[in-house]
Amino acid sequence: xxxxxxxxxxxxxxxxxxxxxxxxxxxxxxxxxxxxxxxxxxxxxxxxxxxxxxxxxxxxxxxxxxxxxxxxxxxxxxxxxxxxxxxxxxxxxxxxxxxxxxxxxxxxxxxxxxxxxxxxxxxxxxxxxxxxxxxxxxxxxxxxxxxxxxxxxxxxxxxxxxxxxxxxxxxxxxxxxxxxxxxxxxxxxxxxxxxxxxxxxxxxxxxxxxxxxxxxxxxxxxxxxxxxxxxxxxxxxxxxxxxxxxxxxxxxxxxxxxxxxxxxxxxxxxxxxxxxxxxxxxxxxxxxxxxxxxxxxxxxxxxxxxxxxxxxxxxxxxxxxxxxxxxxxxxxxxxxxxxxxxxxxxxxxxxxxxxxxxxxxxxxxxxxxxxxxxxxxxxxxxxxxxxxxxxxxxxxxxxxxxxxxxxxxxxxxxxxxxxxxxxxxxxxxxxxxxxxxxxxxxxxxxxxxxxxxxxxxxxxxxxxxxxxxxxxxxxxxxxxxxxxxxxxxxxxxxxxxxxx
Amino acid sequence: xxxxxxxxxxxxxxxxxxxxxxxxxxxxxxxxxxxxxxxxxxxxxxxxxxxxxxxxxxxxxxxxxxxxxxxxxxxxxxxxxxxxxxxxxxxxxxxxxxxxxxxxxxxxxxxxxxxxxxxxxxxxxxxxxxxxxxxxx
Lengths: 500, 137
Description:
The complex is a heterodimer.
Chain A: H1 7-20, H2 27-83, H3 87-99, E1 103-109, E2 115-119, E3 126-137, E4 140-151, H4 154-202, E5 214-215, E6 217-218, H5 225-302, H6 305-308, H7 310-339, E7 347-350, H8 351-361, H9 363-368, E8 372-375, E9 380-383, H10 385-401, E10 410-415, E11 423-427, H11 460-470, E12 474-480, E13 484-490
Helix pairs in contact in A: 2-3, 2-4, 5-7, 7-11, 8-10, 10-11
Chain B: E1 7-13, H1 17-30, E2 33-39, H2 42-51, E3 59-63, H3 71-82, H4 84-87, E4 90-95, H5 100-108, E5 112-117, H6 122-136
Helix pairs in contact in B: 1-6, 2-3
């Protein structure tokens, strides 16, 4: 297939192109042109100079042979003419010499004082001196005259200048024409296409534009470098488009997932709040009937039912015990419901102060079981004061409660200075916890002992765990049956935490 | 109809002492129960059965929520340790739990004969005695 499918329209297109003068402003092409033209101009100037210099030297060399040729051609004639006193001939010969090229001045002087002169003397002339010797006999050589020839190199110089000007002018013209031609060619076959490529790629809807590049021919048909570039751009465009679409899909999908997640979280938060409120109000409302039953039991006592028989008394006592268990349960459920509320306050708290308050609150219990609570130095913790107070209260009172009857309970509240974060330890000398149950005791309403051995609702450690979760901490147990237990509560590091 | 209905020996396995006392009263009020043995720890009941292999137990009233070994754990441990003999006993689960999961778990358990909600009543006791009577025949 011919590269010029339609010669006529192609020709017109080229003419339009040239007339449009775009090539004049093409910077890449022009730069190229300057460089090419400059280099070639320098090269040709260099070679021309060598040429001119050689020519000049040649001319100068030629001049120096003139005198020699004059001597060779006229020396005998001069000598004879002078010997024979043929002054007409001498004059003619002198004129002949003067007429020679480059000769500006001739002077013939005889020993007798006769001179023939032609031309004008000048400082710039090169004077050659030719003596004429007449050989009367082999031994006798007589000087009959001396010829001075003044040769001018002006002609050579003029010629040199002339040549130089011609060379310069032709070079300049060559350069000018070459520049324009190169510029046009470059712009036509390369520059124009580069601009089209740039324009094509920089369009805003580049990826959406389904059109392929049209660079005179469909880009797939061109085999040269421009064709490669436009083909590569086509490929890149397709790839970019599919990447872009994939990305948009992914973004849409993720946005949907995000908003679903947000909706779900909001739902869960609502459900949580509702449940917490419900639990709270239920247990709050149960206090009233619990109190009523208590009153009724007291009424029965007052009416003397307890005195009736042993069984009645036992039943009334059991009712009291059960009622107090009920109110304990209600209290614990109320505490738990408020602890699972989502937004505890976050303050930097001195746990020493809180521990002291808790011990103060438990004063009655401590003295009742003949116990002892030791407080050592505790760290600062970021959290909710009410909840942390409940935490300490539960842990300490557990330590006091679950103690075998053969000894007095001793509970120590301390910290771990070696730990990288705030740690609170509650150690007791109680009955201990079997290791297989150490997870279970945190479950709701799960107990290890009967009510008659040790009272309790099974909610204490559940509440502690919930509070610790609220504070993003962890709890672990070390225990030995019959010896005691150590509860370790770890809190996350906070801004005010200082390692001692 | 009370003739012939008899629960000679009943086990009561429940951690609450006060509840135990109430059950004993109810069982005796029903008039069909002979001996009642109370255990506040399920473990203790298994130990007793191991120590007294000849003892015939007609009904076991079993609570679910107990500290230490709970009702379902008792069933596993007892059948492990006592084998066939345990399988022949009538087990009645007695619980406050209204959790439907507990109910379905109990009902699908091969060893559990019945599932009762507390509080226990005399009518329920008579019904259980009837069950025993009909299974004997």
